[in-house]
Amino acid sequence: MNNTATLLISCPDKKGIVASVANFLYEHNANILHADEHQDNENKLFFLRTEWDLMDFSINREEFKKLFTQTAKKFQMDWKIRYSSDKLNVALFLSKEDHCLADLLYRYKNNEINFNIKMTISNYPNAKELSEFYNIPFYEIPSTDNREKDEQKILSVLGKSNIDLIILARYMKIFSPEFIQKFGNPIINIHHSFLPSFVGARPYHQAYERGVKIIGATAHYVTAELDQGPIIDQDTLRISHRDSIENLIQKGKDIEKIVLSRAVKSHIEDRVLIYGNKTVVFD
Amino acid sequence: MNNTATLLISCPDKKGIVASVANFLYEHNANILHADEHQDNENKLFFLRTEWDLMDFSINREEFKKLFTQTAKKFQMDWKIRYSSDKLNVALFLSKEDHCLADLLYRYKNNEINFNIKMTISNYPNAKELSEFYNIPFYEIPSTDNREKDEQKILSVLGKSNIDLIILARYMKIFSPEFIQKFGNPIINIHHSFLPSFVGARPYHQAYERGVKIIGATAHYVTAELDQGPIIDQDTLRISHRDSIENLIQKGKDIEKIVLSRAVKSHIEDRVLIYGNKTVVFD
Amino acid sequence: MNNTATLLISCPDKKGIVASVANFLYEHNANILHADEHQDNENKLFFLRTEWDLMDFSINREEFKKLFTQTAKKFQMDWKIRYSSDKLNVALFLSKEDHCLADLLYRYKNNEINFNIKMTISNYPNAKELSEFYNIPFYEIPSTDNREKDEQKILSVLGKSNIDLIILARYMKIFSPEFIQKFGNPIINIHHSFLPSFVGARPYHQAYERGVKIIGATAHYVTAELDQGPIIDQDTLRISHRDSIENLIQKGKDIEKIVLSRAVKSHIEDRVLIYGNKTVVFD
Amino acid sequence: MNNTATLLISCPDKKGIVASVANFLYEHNANILHADEHQDNENKLFFLRTEWDLMDFSINREEFKKLFTQTAKKFQMDWKIRYSSDKLNVALFLSKEDHCLADLLYRYKNNEINFNIKMTISNYPNAKELSEFYNIPFYEIPSTDNREKDEQKILSVLGKSNIDLIILARYMKIFSPEFIQKFGNPIINIHHSFLPSFVGARPYHQAYERGVKIIGATAHYVTAELDQGPIIDQDTLRISHRDSIENLIQKGKDIEKIVLSRAVKSHIEDRVLIYGNKTVVFD
Asked: How many CA atoms lie within 13 A of D245 on its CB side?
């Protein structure tokens, strides 16, 4: 894998943005590997993602920060740069169902996603063996009647590592707005329905009741409002009257795994830009 | 095409149903072409669809009715038989958008669906030319402030033919419960979202606002409650941040056409059984 | 899970088959859970699958065999019955890529598929740890220049257990016709293309060369002719010019896993009937 | 719709391309609406598509040509510019099946695709009425034993209008290499299979014989070698053992229509770049 940098930009749309960024990178001898742009013509917003090989790049991290800030200011850019050598530290959360966990751990071991899984946290004991098989520390933090205290424990465990991202891989507890704020970094959740259908508990039961002919899964960023955060990825699967609730739950697992892992990969590769309650996801 | 009969049965699940029906058909020398069964093990219900060639069948319509009633009673069957030579009479409704109309008319002309389109009704004048190209009488019944009176007019036009099925091919008015009751026969609607997401008006605008990554279309039977009737078919389509609302509307048309025509074909071929607010749709 | 029996029948299509089978099961008090039939009207063939609860069933295995043989003879049936309590014994084969193995082992542990995995066999050492984590004996049988001898070793390992099914979960060696014949039981392979496109080696490279816009995976029974056996299941995935060969290989893994596991599940649940070089797969 | 220009570029990948193009457009006050780039890192090729509003653009067509040629030379660019006000002239070809014709004519009338359909050509008489309903001249040119003479007639009819694109909307004759060369402009064909599977005649029959579980359709540019030209778009559809050949043909029509219209739209909007035997298709 190459040693690369990825630059993400959001700003008001204006003439000259691409020229400025392109000139900046060209002047410092960047060998561009990928570049994607998007204009939201309705809201007059501009989004850019570009990734370049650092091999011939003539400026270092500090210089980049200093120099690029000038361009950024001119266009009121919201920007960030990430270096592929800085892997994100991730904490995986789950409750009883471990299919998403097993899937992410396998992809981690096989380098399908370029992250560091630092820990698994569950309110049940069952994922211990699986986590440890992949050499990931497992923390059981049971859910009690005192959510505040539970969340305190979680924050304290998270604090041991420098966690950049929480992945809720079928974690069935809802975080308080305070927890989300204190943690401060992004949280990705997999919801087992095609949102906005079937918000909340037991979505497959809701889907079965309504008699839909297709089920779905949705990966989204967690916000204070339940299942309302910006959607990163979704997928659907055709079902029929033959499918019992058990079948829906079973078949749904396969799309949950794929949607969550795709969304996490997009996030880890800095392909996702949030604006308002929506996302731009560059492929 | 063969001259066939199709028998549809719903009843409480019990031992011996299949044997009874199979014996009945065998005794009267039916040459079975298709047979489908479904047990809903949760609700203890049984559903059956069977289609046979009438060539060698030894009893006529009256005899069938008389004789089969005995079997039906024994198992408390809700049943109906339809003969392929009796085509259903259909009325197509639309407002301004005519893509579903054009699609259904083309399929009608090419015998893709075995029905008689008897008329097109619209609250706008634009579909006149297209309908008449396919030799279908066109009735413009503008929507006024007086829904009762408008619906009276519609019922009077429908009354001229013996309409077995109304297809709402992007008809943007909502029928009153009274109209639905007076018409009495099934009404199929295409809703331009993946229900139960985005009920009601402007679903593509709602989808755009929510930032979903997939759009959908849903064909369902119309009941008194808006967009809540039994779902017959659905489909979905992947979109991205690049898609403007105009794109969603445009791309959505292709799934609307396909979902509606599939649902209508299933209904016309007696593949749909309603139970509660759900459907069994045999392929 | 219920204690059930599943009956599979193929025979020339004739009047009275369903009645005979239904009567037979009814007479012996079978509580039918699922029944599927298919008429191939072109080749005049009839296929049936029915599953019933053994709870109230009045005859035992020997009696069934003896009594049903009479019905079977009358209609020249090719038939088999399987009891859910008799799990099939399975051997998993792989070479270097272990994603299908990891997927099947996980499903095995979570009872998603009702089989006994008795062993993993590979021509490379790497899957040892993963197999043993799931308590499955691992046999490394390296490939040498002497295929006959290699296959002899494999047969000898298989002989230790009573293997009903071999699953080639990305095993990159081709079995000789002699091996296939000696083994005698079904072999399911996952081929990493949408057959019949890209038969043989390096199908993703072939797909990349041809510039297709969709890739696929195919699960099929192995016959003496390479990649030509009856297809059980397939799936496809949209790609674009952005995807390098590495991406195709990576993305393809997800459909390979799903297609193989679905095909294996269908086989294990006796949903697959082979006729000619094709399959009937009841859902 | 805006009055826009679209620039398409292919060239060897080099540092500075994006900066040069972006500067050029910025200097002449282009208001960029869309921009897409693609690096083929394996073949070291660079592709770019950019579309801008002409409202504030400071140079006219001749100036653009003259000035941009300098940039183009520096980077050995293969480039073309198209103005949205210059609609492409299109000739539609078909044989007996008219579903793709009906679909394209409908989209034409509803401005879903920004082209001028100038004529319909068929070797059968049946599409006359449909073409003329949409005010498109219809030419019947029957196929005789003398292909050269037939093609002469076709060229002569095409010569009456300035045809930029031929669309083979289920035209069942194969053009000679001479014809393709003489015509000189692109030809898009819809092949009713998932290429490279089932090249040539009767692909649904081939698919049925092979027992595939998914069928497909492929839109590609026509080259001298049958069904081997660069693929623009493909799609697939799940089928089952229940589907007769007639069903495959019927169901396939829906994907043929959609794939062909999508490919045509991509071509018309200058989203397709050919390289080698492959395409880049920007969404």
From this structure: 12
Residue C136 per-residue DSSP state: -
Helix/strand/coil for C137: coil
Angle at D33 between CA D31 and CA D37, to 5 degrees: 115
**Catalytic site includes residue D53:** no
Q: What is the pLDDT of residues B63-117, one digit of tens each?
A: 999 999 999 999 999 999 999 999 999 999 999 999 999 999 999 999 999 999 9
From residue C203, alpha-carbon distances to A112, C83, C195 in Å are: 20, 39, 10
Is 80 exceeded by the pLDDT of residue C2? no
Question: Is pLDDT above 90 for B207?
Answer: yes
Exposure string for A126-139, b = 16+ CB within 10 A, e = fewer: ebeebbebbebbbb
Q: Which residue is closest to A212 within chain B, CA to CA?
A: B231
- Phi and psi torsions of C172, nearest 5°: -95, 10
Cβ separation A18–D35 shorter than 8 A: yes
B230 touches A: beta carbon within 8 Å: yes
What local confidence, expressed as pLDDT, does residue B1 receive?
62
State the average pLDDT over residues A39-52. Answer: 93
Q: Which three-class secondary structure state does DSSP give residue D119?
A: strand
* Pairing relationship of beta strands B231-238 and B214-221 according to DSSP bridges: antiparallel
Sequence-ordered strand ranges (E) for chain B: 4-12, 31-40, 45-53, 78-83, 88-94, 115-122, 138-140, 165-168, 187-191, 214-221, 231-238, 272-275, 278-281
The pTM (predicted TM-score) of the whole model is 0.96
Rounded CA separation C40/C47 (Å):
8
Residue D207 has pLDDT above 80, yes or no: yes
Per-residue pLDDT tens digits for A200-239: 899 999 999 999 999 999 999 999 998 899 999 999 999 9
Report which residue type is found at D181: Q
Task: Find the CB nearest D283 among B242, B258, B283.
Answer: B242
pLDDT tens profile A120-157 = 999 999 999 999 999 999 999 999 999 999 999 999 99
Q: Which of B98, B150, B164, B227 is catalytic?
A: B227
Phi and psi of D24, rounded to 5°? -55, -50
